[in-house]
Amino acid sequence: MKWTRREVLKGLGGIPILGSLWWAGSASAITKKKERSEILEQLNIEPSLPTEVPPVTGDAVRVGIIGFGIRGEQLCRSLGFATKEWRADMEEEMKENPQNKALEVFDSQDKLNVVITGVCDVFDYRANRAINSFSTAENKVKRYKTHQEMIRSGVIDAVVIATPDHWHAPMAIDALENNIHVYVEKPMTHTIEETYRLREAARNSKAVLMVGHQHRQTQSFKTAQDIIEKGVLGHVSLIETSTNRNDDNGAWNYDIHPDANENTIDWDMFLGSAPKIPFNKNHFFRWRKWWAYGSGLSGDLLSHDYDRLNCVLNFGIPDSISASGGIYTHRDGRNVPDVLQVNMEFPNFSTGSSQVKGKEKGLTFIYSATLGNGYPRPTVLMGHDGTMELGNSLVIWPEGGSTKFAEFLEEEKMNPGVPIYYYDPGANIPDAISSATSQYFADKGLLWTYLNGKRVDSTWLHMREWLSVLRNGGKVSCGIKEGFEEAMTAHMTGLSWKLGRRIDWDRAKEELIPIEGIDFDQALLESPDLSADHIRV
Question: Residue 317: which domain range?
């Protein structure tokens, strides 16, 4: 019986074993138990268990929220604080779709011993929304007009920064220099110069910095680390990953709130270091579409894919990056590309080899993105002995020309068309998806993971780790080293696209190799179409 690749994967979905899926295939559809055990014994893959962290005991950690937009609200929910409006929306959605478990998951989430004592947002509506939902008789949430005022208030232990990108580093540096703990969204900086300054501030501070790459808590990625370390794939020479989105939300055309006007938004504060332009709601709510405030596909979405592969392979900053693409799907005044192709080169990287020493070395990482098509392309790691598809679940396919598995292939205990390992910690757990963009994040393992047969918010796990480390000591999984690598990679990509040429990294000096006549930060921030923006709302 011959199965297609798609049929095999579809069939795997109905074979749960303790929350995981294990499969070893031969040329026939039904594999003998002895052969399956023999293959699994040689692979020796162990699904990773959740990381144990000491509890956040003692007095509650006093947290200030800087930026209470879309991501700011999500982060607050991970801390255990949901707005009244969100709860009402979820209750309505549950009536329409009982499979929507968002509210149930939130209510069952363990408390993190946190109190939100302050909020800082330039939009009155957002700040008041937080105050009205999170204030209690014992704790009145205070609004701060500036991050400096909050950081120096004396009633804040830690800040969560969920602002536009151009404010990340200034706020994080100020907090760290005052020994206030920081959870900052990616990318952690907006320029090359900021990246070095933030690293210096983090190294010299007594406070703990965590960068918001929550997928480092996802169990499939932790299992993938074990697979790579044990050499199951052999030498990995090519990685392919992608962004595929095709709706307004996925293209950053977020809703514009009816209460937004020059009297309810502190426009000058929002602009900060960005070019001074007249009040513009389009820029305020959809800031990701302009280099002046955001980092485009390279900093907003490539950064996720880069870091989730870096946490598995630990390859660091690429030796070189070449990027191309353009504004091909949303000609709406934006000046960041909505189609992007990126080649990252790691000529000296190796995951180990099953062949003769010296034959294999080097890795190419390909990222491609479009905001005009939602076809789900898997993340693929291609090795000499096997190929791994990696997301919230993972699949390993044997490679027909494998050295490691040559005997199994010859004896037809393995077949390149049948996976030898399939891991899905969320098997048979219903997950309602509210939008195409949510599905995109869920498939990549960025929304939730599964522990002991239960769905758990990955961001909750990430913030729990941060809070535990700042209270008990230890090391966070995504600190300044990982943030530096991610930010610099994103900036190299942006520069390559803007300059139309390859950008090179000097590993020994830890700096970009200079290009005569080019100021990298000036090029990175340049917004040639900003003044000609014809979309005004």
Answer: 217-255+276-405+432-452+487-525
